[in-house]
Automatic annotation (TrEMBL):
<dbReference type="GO" id="GO:0016787">
    <property type="term" value="F:hydrolase activity"/>
</dbReference>
<feature type="domain" description="Isochorismatase-like">
    <location>
        <begin position="9"/>
        <end position="155"/>
    </location>
</feature>
<dbReference type="Pfam" id="PF00857">
    <property type="entry name" value="Isochorismatase"/>
</dbReference>
<protein>
    <submittedName>
        <fullName>Hydrolase</fullName>
    </submittedName>
</protein>
<dbReference type="InterPro" id="IPR050993">
    <property type="entry name" value="Isochorismatase_domain"/>
</dbReference>
<keyword id="KW-0378">Hydrolase</keyword>
<dbReference type="InterPro" id="IPR036380">
    <property type="entry name" value="Isochorismatase-like_sf"/>
</dbReference>
<dbReference type="InterPro" id="IPR000868">
    <property type="entry name" value="Isochorismatase-like_dom"/>
</dbReference>
Length: 183
């Protein structure tokens, strides 16, 4: 199954100020998430951003919010966005959800399992997920795959969303996101 623009939403899970420093690769996580958010915004893909207890963990990184200014931000206290009931109807109306964020073995995992339980096709962007340790990230990704989520990369997401080189944004996306060294 391919990711299709008219069926998909990007869900960014808990990339927050006071949590990112504890990740195994905080700068890489920032850069890769920013790349994905900016590219999806350029393709006008709907974006939802969750925040786990923002009073304690701080808000989403400002650069990420700036990269996707039309994103809807939702708050939660459950680890799973699904269990929290915070996902907007616009996301739930689409049958494909592209997920990235942190931590891969906690909030991302529980959200993905909840989305799969709701019958969604879930695509986890493994190069835009992180945990405090590489082992926890690997375990979370393995469990999501075993449960039926598709593991993808950022480039896979973009090329599937565009579908072909005749896409009106192909040239812009190629020149902006596919040249030089990528994060």
């Amino acid at each position: 199954m391919l990711i299709e623009h008219h069926r998909a939403t990007l869900l960014v899970v808990d990339i927050q100020e006071r949590l990112i420093g504890a990740m195994s690769d905080p700068q890489g996580m920032r850069d890769r998430a920013h790349w994905l958010l900016a590219a999806c915004a350029d393709l006008a893909l709907p974006v939802v951003i969750s925040e786990q207890y923002p009073k304690g963990l701080g808000p989403t990184l400002p650069a990420l919010l700036a990269a996707a200014p039309a994103a809807e931000v939702v708050e939660k206290s459950h680890f799973s966005c699904v269990a929290a009931g915070c996902l907007p109807a616009s996301l739930m109306a689409r049958d494909q959800v592209i997920v990235c964020g942190m931590e891969a073995h906690v909030c991302v995992l529980q959200t993905v399992l909840g989305l799969l339980g709701c019958g969604k096709q879930v695509f986890v962007v493994e190069d835009a997920c992180d945990s405090r340790t590489p082992a926890n990230k690997a375990a979370g990704l393995a469990r999501m795959r075993q449960a039926g989520a598709q593991l993808v990369t950022r480039e896979m997401v973009l090329f599937e969303l565009m579908g072909s080189a005749s896409h009106p944004q192909f040239r812009h996306i190629s020149k902006t996101y596919m040249v030089g060294e990528q994060p």
